[in-house]
Amino acid sequence: MTASAAPRPTGGVEPALTSVIGRPDRPLANNQRNTELFLLVLSLVVVTGMSVAVQGSVLGEINAGALALPGLLAILFLGAHLAVRFLAPYADPLLLPAVATINGISVVFIRRLDLGRLTPDERLAAGVLGGEGSEALKQYIWATVAILGFVALLWLVRDHRSLARFGYIALFTGLVLVLLPAVLPSSLSEINGAKLWIIIPGIGQIQPGEFAKIALLLYFARSLVDNREFLQIVGKFQTLKATPGFLFRAYAPIISAWLVSLGVLVFEKDLGSSLLYFGLFLVMTYVATNSVRWLVIGLLLFMAGAYSAFLVVSRVQLRVNVWLHPFDDPFNAGYQIVQSLLALGSGGLFGAGPGAGSPNLLSLYASTDFVFAAIGEEIGLFGLTALLMLYALIASRGIRAGLDVRDSYGKLLAGGLAFSITLQTFVIVGGVTKLIPLTGLTTPFLAYGGSSLIANWLIIGLLIRISDAGRRPAKVKAPPLQLRDAPTEVVKL
Amino acid sequence: MNAPLRRVAVAVFVLFALLFVNLNYVQVVKGDDYRTSDLNERVRISSYERPRGLIMVEDQAIAQSVETDGRYKYQRKYPQGELYSHVTGYQSMIYGNSELEAAENEDLSGESDKLFVRRITDMITGKKSKGANVLLTLDKEVQAATADALEGEKGAAIAIDPTTGEILSLVSNPAYDPNPFAAHTDQPQKDAWKKLNGDNVNKPLLDRALNQTYPPGSTFKVIMSAALVERGYKADSQVDAPNQYTAPQTTKYIENFHGETCGNGVQVTLEFALQESCNTVFAKLGVEEIKAEGIKEKAKDFGFGEKFKVPMTSAASETGDLPDDPSVAQSSIGQRDVRMTPLQGAMIAAAVANNGELMTPYLVKKVESADYTTLSTTRPKTFSNPMSDSDAGEVQKMMRAVVENGTGTRAQIDGAEVGGKTGTAEDGDARQDHAWFIGYAIVGGKPVAAVAVVLENAGTSSSSSAAIAGIIMKSIIEQRANR
Q: Which residue from A26, A200, A485, B241 could staple onto B262, CB 3.0 to 4.6 Å apart?
């Protein structure tokens, strides 16, 4: 698998996808899979501890049932670990345990929210995953699907560069997924004022934006690899005297990205996704070109767009006003953010303890948009800090995978994937903590919801795939290095 | 591409750092504000999570918490309804707590430091913590008698044990039923609030006994008498009793009630002047003998200017500034800017009855934990000694004359030595006067009761006030005999 997997270069500047997999400078010895296993066990200990605490506090008694859910989760996570062991043996050992910890806490906490809605008698009868309308059961099933997807991805995609083949297909898929909710009638696409769903009556709904994110990332990476040298030139020189064709080719991508983002905002009323798409585009362009000019242009466009959206879209105005003065209208417009702040404040430094908060007061969306605040009331600043550290760890290991891998496509893709988790976390956590206006993104791995969970596990799958490539020692019997990629060496004679 | 990628990593850390700093701000810097915010339903739920302590009058609970099935576990009930409304107040989710429910909230809710050790033990043993019970000094028979006697009137009555300062009954009319305020749904609370708070004429929520000040009228002459006795006057001292008295610096004269002549219109004894409530006598002596500073000082000795925490905080009674002789003359007969609460009125009578020693009034006898362990007991405290023992004897003699021969005869009680003073206080020109009576009863040489009764805008019926005071004191004497 070398150049044969790569598409015919379209921009024609650099055949970027031709370097070998593997790092000749790395020793073959320890692939750190046992480290991963050990950390995974540790994360299961944390999840179990939380489950026991919830049990004690919500049911008033600690019984073997508290171990059931962590046990079920252990099966999933250990399965994921085995898949990594066989399919991506050199992958970063921190990614999987960090994700498993958050996902495990999420399922346990969603069960805690389920129980919180029941009367004490119903709680005892509810069983391990239980009760009527249990979100925990669904979330566990979603986690199973997500991890199966993760394993399938590792199995099907043995070399991340094979994904570079999906350029325009990815773009097309991404745009369809982004735009579909806007085109569908509201009855099939709108929930709580945001048109970002595809509702299949009687079955359920999916949030196509979560998958669009990945498709667009794939396209951005491929397209930027093709065009990066051209964009670098545009980023460095005066372009005023350029021909219209040159200008179009230079600026069409950023303008299109901007317009699509604005479209998402205006037609789907989805502030968060709009911000996410454009932010990802900008950061990846920057990584590809190392040119600050693109960041500046992008930020100017963003500000212009944000300001006109503020003037034109009433929903945006409302969000900004509520953000600035939530306590002016604490029972209507400001209700959710006020309740979120009250929950976080009530949690204080150490939190009320798992199971001891009042998430029912917080919001109807305690398991989705406000899950961070709901859990914050119970685990306090200390717990939330640890949680944020896990996100930061995932993002930084993702970027590390980008630094380690040797091909441009892998670097761009890893950087984009890692940044997507960062930006998403920042936008939603910043929103519920009143750092920025509240928008409806899902909290990765923590919020209830299948689309988000599956999409984010796929992102982790891709990062693990790339990090496996970056950390894999060069095979002894590897084909000879192509000269232009080979490091210059002094050869002892 | 590694250089820009590293810079992206820096940006990632900056974003997480922003989240982290902001989270510290929300959870730590603003944490206490949010935790205790009025908007924070958690505060309310936790305050309804454990049963609040009882408020007890003798063996009877006048406020208790009853378990419910709702989100809020315990609901407050006031079994006696209106009878104790101004004592217990209410616990309302919307309008907060009032009266004892507010003043004794820490004990009743179980958050008091007194209960700290118990809360820890409860936490360890897993027992549900309960609020502390508050036992009152009130006497249920006397409270009932007071309310009966005041039935249909607008005004207030309060009775004190002169030797201790224990409040024996406290009634303010019109009263209200506190139960709707304790509802766990909004509507009954809002309805009650609208009805009661909206009634600007009768102001049922106002505790007139502690928080309403009235011009004391002639009852203020007791303080004047105390000041005079201190200056060497005796009950039988001869004093000038002109039909009119015109203070220096004014042409407006003061005359006696309805322009009557006091005694022979020339000179009378001080006792007679009080007995017949001669305005000119006290106005003249106020200006010439006691003077502004003397009046203010004596009033202060009796408790004027003080907000008593019984534990509800009373309004402060006041004399006003008394800047010149005309105002001293008017203030000497309890008009002008002089204002007094019924509580203060009862305290004046109590100090006289208790031989010049004024005890601090109080309503809470004892605080007990839910298992009846005493957590604290109120000990009687001397507030001040506004008169010497012998001076108090002189003032008693004069006040006794009021009840035996003067304006307060309807307060007489068989077998008791009753002293008092009526007052008819002008409340502006348009409205009817307030009718006051302050008095005390001594049985077998021991002071047993001091009361103040005020009937708002009742006209010149201070004799009905005296009658009501008589009924209250009689009931106290009977209870004392039964004990």
A: B241
